[in-house]
Structures are given as structure tokens and as C-alpha cells.
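Predict both folds.
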Amino acid sequence: MNAVPPSTTAAGTPAFAQSGTSAMSERWTALADAGNVVATLAGLEAEGTSAEMRNFPALIRDAEPWRREHAENSIADLAAVMEPGIAALLALHARGADSRPAALTLWREFVSARGAIMSVLPATGNLGPRRTA
């Protein structure tokens, strides 16, 4: 039985790439949750998750390095906008003010930015992660 070097997984994928995908997946999920909070504050129904949105971290992992880097930077930028935006909306809501107009504006910005991030994926028509045996 061959030992797997600590820097790679059994599939031969560099270990740092696996942890990076997991971290991106967590950030992507957190952004989706934040978007649903904003939608609720805007008076909209929480959005369902499409297969493309759900699989985005796995799909981008298999894309060219420039696409991964662009997606990671864009996700960080969107998180940097959402965090203070949600804090401000929650403060408005806590004071009894109508936060719906501001929440709707943030929701529209979120949807637009999320669409731009997802457009970084190559157009392959594949909605699932690449499987290897």
C-alpha cells in the first residue's frame, strides 16, 4: 500500500486546494444566507437555491486559476458590502423604521453581484462537479 504524501489527498489533489474549496463553499453559503436575510427585510420571500448556485464552489474549483481568483476576490468584495449593509438594515429594523426600501436596494445589488460572480464560470452546461473514480 502506497502512502499518500501529506501535501496531497488520496485523489492526488493538493490539500490546500481542497481546503480552499471548502472555505469558498462556506463563504458562498454564508452569502446566500445573508441574501435571504436581506430579502426577508425587503419583504420578499427567501430565494430557493438552484443547482448552479449550489454547485458553484465545485464548478469554480475545476475552472482556470484566473477564474477561481476572480471569483474568490468577488465573493470577498460582496461579503464586505453585505456585512455593514445588513448591520444597518437590522439597526433600522430594531428602531422600528421601515427598512424595506433600503433592503430592496441592497437585495438588487446582491442579486446583480451574485450574477456577475457566477458569470465567471465557463459556459459548459455542466451543473454538477466533475466526478473522478
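Second protein follows, with its predicted C-alpha cells after the sequence.
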Amino acid sequence: MFAAFVVLLREGFEASLLVAIVLAYLTQIGHSKERRQVWYGVGAAIALSLVLSGVVFATAGELEGPAEGVFEACALFLAVGFLTYMVLWMRRESRHLAGNIRRDVEGAVGRGGGLALAFLVFVMVLREGIETGLFIFGITRASTPLQTAIGATAGILAAVGLGYAVYVLGTRINLGAFFKYTGAFLIIVAAGLLAQGIVSIQEAGVIPAFFYPLWDVSEMPLLGATSAFGQFLGILVGWDPRPDLLEFSVWLIYLLAVGYAFFRPQEPVAERGARPAQSG
């Protein structure tokens, strides 16, 4: 439940923030009438995201045996790829996000207004929607539909509330800190999804288990597969009380590699279109 909440809070707030910046800037430059096109783009992106997510869930439900395991693994690997790229990209670009979006809006309005603007917003929101659908698919592999639905609904409501506060109330939010802390948590979630993907292809017989089990605490009251805390860790970080060497190694290597890329000091990034400083 908590993993679904954070995923939807993060992804939903990203989408809400992008839309809020577009709407506010349209008002600022005197193009308030174009806001309807923004909502057209948002609506189309949400609709397509739901359709694509439904296709993923329906396909997984129709498959059986090894094919189901391979499909689940591919969906999980794709989700991890999306998440990794977006977390690292947002970590780097959050300082200049508003300025870059304003330039995109100016370009869209200059190219003909309505259609170009709707397409710009459509692409931004669709990216978040597809990413979210894949994450939720992965989370449901280790959680119940009810837990996922409760966490997802709470996350969406919180994200919309934050986006509304940014747009209407002008509330100052430390975007760097928000994306840093939620990004760090999502990296841990992604490591768990990656490990689940490895288990899925092993169960499908594509690759064998290596040194299985590496350890076995499945009967422990606290960390076992049937304990409440063990199940919570499984949903949250992909905890497996009986992992093999490959599953654990992939989980650890991903955490170390992506964690290093995420937390290393950020080099100054110039906004798009900024002129480089000239010497002399």
C-alpha cells in the first residue's frame, strides 16, 4: 500500500506540476483561452494511459505457464528502465524545469497554438501515465489489489492537492528535496521490481537459479514469507526470504550503481537556450 502511495504521489505530482506550470504560464503571457487545449491533452493522455495499462494487465491475466513469467519479467524490466531514467532525469533537471517548460509552451503557441499545445501536454502526461501503469503492475505482483488501490488512490489525491496548491495558492515547495527523497525511495522500489523480474524468468525456466537458496528465513516469525512484516518488506522493497545468488546480486548491484548516480554531486546544468559564458 505504501509503495503504491509513494509511486502515485511522485508520478502524479510530476504530472500535476507540469500541467500547473503550463497553465500558469499561459495566463502570464495572455493566452488563457488556450487552457482548454491543455485539458484536452491531459484527458487524452490519461485515457490512453488507462487503455495501455489495461492491455498489460489483461495480457498478463490471459497468459499461463512460462509465457506468463516471461511477460511479467519484461513488464517489470521495462518499468525499472522507465523509472531509472525519469528519476535521474528529474534529479538533474528539477532546478530548471519551469524555465524549460515555459520555452516549450512558447514554441507550441508560436507553431499554431491549440493543437501543438495539446500535443505538448499530451506527451508530458502520457509519459508519466505509462510509467505509473507499469509500476502499479509490478507492485500488484507482491500485493493485493485492494491494498494497491487504496495506496494508489491516496497517492493520486495527495498529488492533485499538491499540484493545486502550486497553481492556485502559490505555495513554495522545495522541489529539489521532494524529488530527492521520493526518488531515493523509488530506486529501492525499482531494485525490488528488478529482483522480482529475475524470479519471474527463473520460474519460467528461461534461466536457472544460482546457489538457491542463498539464505532461508522463510520460517522466521518476523521475516518469513507468511509474517506481516515480511510481506510488507516484500511489497515495499522486494524482500525475498529465500533468494538465490543472481536475484540478490542484481538487486544489490542496481542499488549501488543507480544510488551512486543519483546521490553523486550534481554538476551545474545550464537551461536550454542559455548562452555559454564568453571569456575575455
